[in-house]
């Protein structure tokens, strides 16, 4: 008689246990990345941003300053916050990355800096109407110039990663959007949301001090490609990781 309540309690507990085990067996997973790997990712981001800064400097004919901010994992719902919040309006240049390492690249310029960028890339002779702070009113040459900037910066960044990783990276044709950060990142995260609740983000920035021009660069590798991203050439990366650790 004393055992019956125990058996009934066990029967009541089983459905709860089954629900916990079967919550989302094949759904998104949380990424867990070792600190050492994040250190390698940070150095890869530094190498890519350095190449992009050199390319951008050649485009505008001015020296640039490099700031490699971080490499970390973020919940998908917080990805938009990495660039000033979901409601911030930006000019966004994006590339999809194919090959041995898949992912997305995103290059952002603020709405206020768009005329500054165009003046540096396509300088005008004499006085003229003020350049637009958005895509509306922009002529075909200005649009083409922005797309070319996205192509050059993206390829320069990826070339550095390709060399350090020893893999082939194939960028897509760049996309151009003038929208809120939330709308831009939501579009990029569509293929990540089906496999993970979190994203690995490599963030860097290049600046032109005289004009205040600032380009924010983000690389979001696909979760299935993180093993490739961690497989850096040890003779080039490991000494830098060790030196960074000693400096902390």
Give a written overview of the molecule.
This protein has 248 residues and is of the alpha+beta class. The chain has one domain: CheC-like (Chemotaxis protein chec, 3-Layer(aba) Sandwich), CATH 3.40.1550. Helices cover 44% and strands 24% of the residues. It contains 8 helices and 7 strands; from the N terminus they run H-H-E-E-E-H-H-E-E-H-H-E-E-H-H. Strands 1, 2, 3, 4, 5, 6 and 7 form a 7-stranded antiparallel sheet that branches. A hairpin with a 4-residue loop joins strand 6 and strand 7. The radius of gyration is 23 Å and the shape is globular. The N terminus is likely disordered.
| Total domain count | 1
Percent strand equals: 15-25%
CATH level 4 superfamily: CheC-like
Helix count equals 8
- Kindly state the number of beta strands: 7
Q: Largest sheet, described in full?
A: 7 strands, antiparallel
- Uncertain ranges: 1-25
Q: Distance between termini?
A: 65 Å
Taking all residues together, what is the mean pLDDT? 81
Q: Helical content, roughly?
A: 40-55%
CATH topology: Chemotaxis protein chec
- Alpha-beta classification: alpha+beta
The topology string of helices and strands comes to HHEEEHHEEHHEEHH
The best one-word shape is globular
CATH architecture grouping:
3-Layer(aba) Sandwich
């Amino acid at each position: 008689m004393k055992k019956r309540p125990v058996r009934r309690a066990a029967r009541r507990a089983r459905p709860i246990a089954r629900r916990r085990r079967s919550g989302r067996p094949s759904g998104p997973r949380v990424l867990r990345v070792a600190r050492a790997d994040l250190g390698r990712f940070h150095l890869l981001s530094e190498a890519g941003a350095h190449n992009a800064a050199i390319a951008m400097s050649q485009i505008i004919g001015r020296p640039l300053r490099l700031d490699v901010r971080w490499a970390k994992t973020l919940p998908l719902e917080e990805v938009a916050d990495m660039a000033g919040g979901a409601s911030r309006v930006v000019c966004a240049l994006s590339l999809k990355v194919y090959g041995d390492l898949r992912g997305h690249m995103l290059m952002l310029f603020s709405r206020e800096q768009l005329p500054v960028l165009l003046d540096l890339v396509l300088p005008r002779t004499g006085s003229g109407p003020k350049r637009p702070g958005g895509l509306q009113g922009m002529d075909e040459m200005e649009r083409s110039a922005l797309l070319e900037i996205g192509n050059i910066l993206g390829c320069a960044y990826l070339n550095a990663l390709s060399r350090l990783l020893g893999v082939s990276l194939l960028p897509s044709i760049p996309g151009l959007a003038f929208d809120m950060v939330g709308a831009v990142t939501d579009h990029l995260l569509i293929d990540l949301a089906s496999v993970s609740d979190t994203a690995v983000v490599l963030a860097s920035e290049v600046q032109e001090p005289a004009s205040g021009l600032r380009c924010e660069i983000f690389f979001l590798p696909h979760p299935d490609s993180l093993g490739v991203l961690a497989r850096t050439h040890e003779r080039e990366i490991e000494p830098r990781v060790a030196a960074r650790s000693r400096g902390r």
